[in-house]
Amino acid sequence: MSSEEIYDLVIVGGGPGGLSAGIYAMRAALKTCLIEAGVPGGQIVNSGEVENYPGFIQETGAGLAEKFTEHARHYGLEMISRQVTAIEPGLEYHQVRLDNGEAYRTHAIILATGGSPRKMNISGEMELYGKGVSYCAVCDGFFFRNKTVVVIGGGDSAVEESLYLAKLVKQLYLVHRRDALRAGMILQQRIKSECNVEILWNSIVTRINADAQGVCSVDLKDTKTGTQRVLDTDGVFIFIGFDPNNRLVPAGTRMNANGYVVTDEKCETNIPGIYVIGDLREKYARQIVIAAADGCTAALAAAHYVEAKKAGDAVCELPPEVLQGASSIKR
Ligand code: NAP
């Protein structure tokens, strides 16, 4: 398509949400492209087993990602492998800028950029990333066969990844800052029955130490007594939640205090024709099935919006806060 033409819909991000949106958009005959800088599939590519996506009792994250991608390609979804650098809302059309200098014009945009692993911001974390510090058990667990690892966190991710690691390692210490796990009951029961897993309650890691080979220990602090001690370990896996990837969210878009975008029931932001789905959107739970459902909702809403806009029934009025953030836009 020439750069002068206008897409009906540009989807930014190729995780379960973005790919589901692509499937629905193609079936609604929208002129659509999906832009993703990395491998299609998003975060789930790094997940070991996925056991809660309906219809798949057990499937690897990568396997599920492949099926979503194949499904979207089946409907002829155009997929562009590039980094998006900016999203610029406009009156006649919105614009999506790419790192190669190109800009795509589009009536509607679905932003599905997800989130990234949250960092502890402690000494040794960044310096030892890839030298014993990891945010992905499936990617790096193999390197710790028959070794000792520390896992930090108490949510579903920390416990799920611990269950994966427990099968490989000799000893696993799950370090949690409180006296109760946040993870779901089934996961809690499973992790407590692993004989090579010890949960260190009310504990935080304050520093990651290394020798010439990489990570060798962590400094631990008891959150109740303040007592400090050193715990020997070969690796540290960090699963303490994630932060929304909101760098591309246009100025003036409504967000909550934690940086998640606030949308209405159609997943539409306060900018007409710009939708946010998946883990970037403020919501109760972050699950693959919900990201996929968001993708469906936003694509159906976008189809309706584009149709109305082309018929002259929908006017894109930019909110004042958006106009202030992008005063030069008069398309
Ligand atoms: P999460 O639910 O937010 O849990 C983060 C955990 O890390 C919490 O236990 C928290 O402690 C701890 N934590 C946060 N900051 C910390 C810090 N600075 N130092 C030490 N510990 C810290 O995040 P998540 O486990 O990544 O899950 C994210 C979302 O994805 C959740 O909605 C989850 O249900 C979902 N998820 C679902 C599945 C599944 O269903 N199969 C799998 C993975 C993720 P506190 O408990 O004290 O706050």
Short description:
With 331 residues, the chain is α/β, with parallel strands linked by helices.
Please provide a written account of the structure.
This protein is an alpha/beta fold and 331 residues long. The chain is built from seven helices and 19 strands. The protein has helices at 16-27, 61-74, 137-140, 156-166, 185-192, 288-310, 320-325, and strands at 6-12, 32-35, 49-50, 59-60, 78-80, 84-88, 94-98, 103-111, 115-117, 133-134, 148-152, 171-175, 197-200, 203-211, 214-222, 228-232, 235-238, 242-244, 274-276. The strands form five sheets. Strands 1, 2, 5, 6, 7, 8 and 19 form a seven-stranded mixed beta sheet that branches. Strands 10-17-11-12-13 form a five-stranded parallel beta sheet, covered by helices on one side. Helix 1 (16-27) packs parallel to helix 2 and helix 4 runs parallel beside helix 5. Mean pLDDT is 93; it is low at 327-331. NADP nicotinamide-adenine-dinucleotide phosphate binds at residues 52, 120, 152-158, 160, 177-178, 182, 204, 239-242, 285-287.
Strand and helix layout:
Blueprint lengths: L5 E7 L3 H12 L4 E4 L13 E2 L8 E2 H14 L3 E3 L3 E5 L5 E5 L4 E9 L3 E3 L15 E2 L2 H4 L7 E5 L3 H11 L4 E5 L9 H8 L4 E4 L2 E9 L2 E9 L5 E5 L2 E4 L3 E3 L29 E3 L11 H23 L9 H6 L6
Parallel strand pairs: 1-2, 1-8, 2-5, 8-19, 10-17, 11-12, 11-17, 12-13
Antiparallel strand pairs: 3-4, 6-7, 7-8, 9-18, 14-15, 15-16
Helix pairs in contact: 1-2, 1-6, 4-5
This protein binds NADP nicotinamide-adenine-dinucleotide phosphate (NAP).
